[in-house]
Amino acid sequence: MNKVLFICKANINRSPMAEAIFCQLLKTKGLDEKFTVDSAATNKSHIGQRPFRSTRKFLDKMHIPYEWIRSRQVTKNDLDSFDYIVVMDQENLSVLSNRFGQVRKVQFLLDYLPEVKDKNVPDPSLTGNHMETYNLLLKSCEKLLLHIIKCEGLDRDNGNAKEIGG
């Protein structure tokens, strides 16, 4: 089982959107049984809440399910138990590092898009642009999934796995 965790500040916009997109990609490719996917916040201001209303409306418009997602705060156990831990911006990485010390498994989601120089995923609650955030998340989630498929040998288990985005 491959475990992927998406992290942002409040877990009500970017990380739940990434979780929902990644789960949709897995389902489309028949890989959902091989993964555990979750998202979490670096702070506790919205614990237990659903994604932000505008994010829910956007995901509805894109026909991406998200109903199970509730905000929760990241724990030390998460950092130990998840295989792939991806943050949305530098602030998230700094908070994790300050709170938990060494965060060797943590990486920027936008590291999977080397052509994008700014590794901070824009927060749609600040920019008002859910489509920009969605496009970055979709492309980077596709690349992350391809990376995991290759690293974990999942392309040998599922012939369709290489056809992400197609």
UniProtKB/TrEMBL annotation:
It comes from the Bacteria. One of its GO terms (molecular function) is protein tyrosine phosphatase activity. Keywords: Hydrolase, Protein phosphatase. It is an enzyme of class 3 (hydrolase). Signal peptide: none annotated. SUPFAM superfamilies: Phosphotyrosine protein phosphatases I. It catalyses: O-phospho-L-tyrosyl-[protein] + H2O = L-tyrosyl-[protein] + phosphate. Its EC number is 3.1.3.48. The keyword Hydrolase applies. The active site is at 8 (nucleophile), 14, 123 (proton donor). The keyword Hydrolase applies. Residues 2-147 form the Phosphotyrosine protein phosphatase I domain. Belongs to the low molecular weight phosphotyrosine protein phosphatase family. This is protein-tyrosine-phosphatase. It comes from Cytobacillus depressus.
